[in-house]
Specification:
Blueprint: H1 4-7, H2 10-25, H3 30-61, H4 73-90, H5 92-114, H6 123-132, H7 138-147
Helix pairs in contact: 2-3, 3-5, 5-7
């Protein structure tokens, strides 16, 4: 999992949000407001991404393996059938954190789709990183939630 949350801490993003609001409040010029709207869409994306990463990092700090990029299918099955399954079964707060993390990533995904043709974000590279670099752990989180049913 990326450390992007260290580059863009939530406190910095809150300051950026305040700056954008101040900029909006200080003009009536439509062209400037459109530019602010453009930047705000990018900030929304960044906030959703950081929120998702922070929640996922909390899971990792609890001993839950999120990134499976280094696991073969067989290794992952072995890993899930051992320590993690017991940890998941014993701790409902972890289940809640998995659900919160999944919800955050799904909210980010929905937002990304709204910007697909807006030229605000690089849609291709977001999808590339989600799939090829396993940046977005939605599939893994769903698998973990499924382990609570066992």
């Amino acid at each position: 999992m990326s450390n992007v949350h260290e580059v863009y801490p939530l406190e910095l993003l809150k300051k950026c949000r305040r700056d954008l609001q101040n900029a909006k409040n200080s003009t009536a010029d439509q062209l400037i407001l459109e530019r602010i709207d453009f930047v705000e869409k990018g900030l929304n994306y960044t906030e959703l991404t950081i929120k998702s990463v922070v929640l996922t990092k909390q899971l990792e700090s609890q001993g839950i393996t999120i990134s499976t990029i280094s696991f073969t299918d067989e290794e992952e099955i072995t890993e899930l059938s051992g320590r993690e399954v017991e940890l998941l079964k014993k701790n409902s707060s972890i289940k809640n954190l998995i659900q919160k993390s999944l919800n955050a990533w799904e909210e980010r995904d929905r937002y990304v789709e709204t910007l697909r043709d807006d030229y605000v974000i690089s849609y291709f590279w977001i999808q590339y990183n989600n799939v090829n670099r396993v940046f977005n752990p939605t599939i893994r989180l769903k698998e973990l939630l499924g382990k609570f049913g066992q």
